[in-house]
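Pasting two entries for a bug report.
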Amino acid sequence: PQVDSANAGRVLASDAAVFLKKSGLTDLVLGKIWDLADTDGKGILNKQEFFVALRLVACAQNGLDVSLSSLNLPVPPPRFTDTSSPLLLSGTASSDVPWAVKLEDKAKYDAIFDSLNPVNGLLSGDKVKPVLLNSKLPVDILGRVWELSDIDRDGMLDRDEFAVAMFLVYCALEKEPVPMSLPAALVPPSKRKPISVPAAMPLIPSSSSTKESHQSLPPVGILAAKTPLTQ
């Protein structure tokens, strides 16, 4: 009922897109989900097709492949960040999950990281690319690995993000599917946001994302203070 406002038993692409975006998945993944669900390509989903889309969202959120073969697998219901949705507040805080990268593996990944000459503890995409390509994995898989591991979306990987990238590459080499969205267990502890919101509080996703984009920029004051020294 939330999406089918006219109650016509079908959902238009535009309405569904707005709703599906709340799942937190990338547009690429949502496009794939839509293509699989909209079987006749009319840009409209009937009730059955919409349920297929929801199940595929749940598959992607739980690290399963987005394909019709995943539809029969048991998955928890999809999660949407919507203030009126009770689903959002159920489940454990992701900050409690132990990190999937084991200590001895982390040491290996750190050694590779250091060998690539990081600058200020960061590796640019150009430095990471040869390592990824070296795995001989398909380019689309490597693109997804990069997208998932660059958690703060700054085009660079720090030590922890690089470990996530390596972990995903090794998973893919073991023929395990690379998830469509980063499972909570794979998010490095340094990147987890402490969840201090009491359960009764509605979470407002938009304000937190705008804050993040500001944080990644250095404060202008510092830049201005530096310039006279260099001259």
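Entry 2 (this is the one that rendered wrong in the viewer):
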Amino acid sequence: MDSQVAKQDQPFADIFDEDEAEKSFLLSKPTCIIVLGKPGSGKKTLARKLAQIWKCILIEALEVIQTNIDEETEYGLKCQELLFKGQNISEELVTKMILKKIESSEASHFGYVLSGYPSLSEEYMTISQQIEKIKNLKLKPDLLINIKCSDYDLCQRISGQRQHPDSGQVYQRNQWDPNIIEKHKKQKDQHEENEEEDEEQEEEKTAEDPPMKADFFHQLVQRPEDFLENADERVGMYKDIMLHPLE
């Protein structure tokens, strides 16, 4: 009787023990994501949030350059040398750093979130060649996220950006424009009159507010690429040379 019960229980037993299950998970392909969209559509912001949530490696041109410089790699030393001379870092060098990061053991283990590639610049590789590179990656993307935004709204958003020269931080119009900040503040005050909020929520909101002061506004500058006519030109270029190959 006992043997019959054992035979009945056997089909429902887990064929993997804990060690085998962990080994299978570690050998499985990690999640890889590519974020696409028009210039200034928020690709990097979304990519950073996804990388944090999915515990993936963020791969983006500026991040990759900074990492190589900090770690003093061969590519990083070349970047430093070019920057000390006041020269731009070539598209070829940036592309090589990005591809190397994708092929790294770190990305193979955690997966990656890639932003800003393919690049609008065809200095080193054409759009089609960049797309072929992605198709032939060992770690192929599992998800392609395309951020859509109307040209008018996007150009208005880009032209409203301002940068702090010392920190390099970029602020949106609702963070630096006194009129919009005052309007939001009045709306917030009205909302708080109707609803009672506990102290913890108040502390969280205070922590999230950007440290904007009156003298801070005058330090912000508009980058040339954020001028309305230049933003419109970049968006048009994306639609002309990038959109069709991507689709």
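Dev reply: Rendering is fixed now. As a check, the viewer should reflect this: Residues 228-246 form the longest helix (19 residues).
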